[in-house]
Amino acid sequence: MLTSATAAELIDALRAVIRSGRAVQHHAYQHEDLPPGAIALLSLLHRDGEQRLGRLAARLDVDPSVISRQVAPLERAGLVRRRPDPGDGRAGLLAVTEDGDRYLCAHQRRWAELVATALTDWAEEDAEALIAGLRRLTADIRAVRELADS
């Protein structure tokens, strides 16, 4: 069982990672034409495929108006397309276009290069252990949240 002191250290370490990540992200996104939220949305659509705006909002735990604002620049840039939902004509389905795939691949390649440069002295096993730990942490936090929501 985790002690309170270790939990507090973990929280501090996560906050430091988030702060560092935001600083790097701010610098990196100065060269992007899209805000970070729009790129995160593009990435989610790319990974999970076509879906309704409302489902995206629920998955990201934000108001649908937030998703609408993030989708607008993606649609204007031709990176996402919207079509009527055949099951419900009032709703629309969002999907990544070929241009969106290319944009996202280039973006992800730049980020992967940045991370690889930052972790150049890490052994592959250390990175894999961190990935496993972060996935476990995410799943455990999600489970607690779902328990609290029910």
TrEMBL record:
Q: Does Transcription regulation appear among the keywords?
A: yes
Q: Does the keyword NADP apply?
A: no
- A Pfam family that the UniProt record links to this protein: MarR
Q: Which UniProt keywords apply?
A: DNA-binding, Transcription, Transcription regulation
The record ties this protein, via SUPFAM superfamilies, to:
Winged helix' DNA-binding domain (SSF46785)
Q: Where is the HTH marR-type domain?
A: 7-139
Cite the GO molecular-function annotations of the record. DNA binding; DNA-binding transcription factor activity
UniProt xrefs under PANTHER family: CONSERVED PROTEIN, HTH-TYPE TRANSCRIPTIONAL REGULATOR RV0880
Recorded protein name is HTH marR-type domain-containing protein
